[in-house]
Write a structure and sequence with these properties.
Strand order of the largest sheet: 2-1-4-5-6-3
Oligomer: single chain
Number of helices: 8
Number of strands: 11
Number of domains: 1
Distance between the termini: 31 Å
Order of helices and strands: HHHHEEHHEHHEEEEEEEE
Strand content: 35-45%
Radius of gyration: 22 Å
Length: about 280
Amino acid sequence: MSAVMWQSVSKGTGTLLALATAASVLVAIAPEARASAAPDPAVVQALQRLGNGTWSNADVELIASNPALADKVPDPRVPAAVDAEEIEYEVFDDGTMQAISTTGLSQADESKAWDAVRLPDLIKGPKGQDVSEADEVEVPEETDPVSAVAAGDARAANVEAAAGRWKTKRVSITHKSLLGTTLYKYHHRARFKYNGSKVTAWGARSDYTSNENGFVQVGNRTRNEKTRLPAASAHSLMKRRIDLCMPVYGCYDTLYPWIKIKMKGSGATSHDSRTY
């Protein structure tokens, strides 16, 4: 297969496809797409306008009229779905944990949260069955004692420092295609300790993707920031590059979804996010 399989293109450029040769196109694309390997100029222009934000309803309708394309292109008229879940819990002097409250959990995770044996694993990393460990990027130097407790790492488990009131929050962005299928989900998770007046310590902070469509290319994290603690209020923000690609037309758009989780010393949280 040619090394030049996809080429990312900046928003607003005139050419969306740059493949080495016609032969490499035929090798790279799926068999069902080979019958019409030549790009349709009207589609090329519509994808370009979708990528640079100058699209019209006619552009969207043109893409939607072709199911093979519509299944790989997001609907710019529909905002990405954003959902959040959080667990408030206490870490005791002996390292055990007990949930205090939960919000937004699935039924399965809700039952785990109130089980003291399963709670540590739930706090450590909520993952779906289609998410591999390699999808998650965690900030190791910010992994605090409570992470070690949850992981069972006796070397780093300083339960005295971990004892107190904690909260873990995960915010997820779900981006869907024109046909309503999931293109990808982007998640940011942050754990923090608080005492009623200040946020006093960070737990593990991470971002990862899941449910990626086969033509979505997940890039590097481009932003990672957190408030210096202790503080009366704080935030954790992460941002990542995601390229949207398809056979014949190459990578036609680059997205930079970000999520900002905000917290107060009282334990109250809120969040902001953006897909583009």
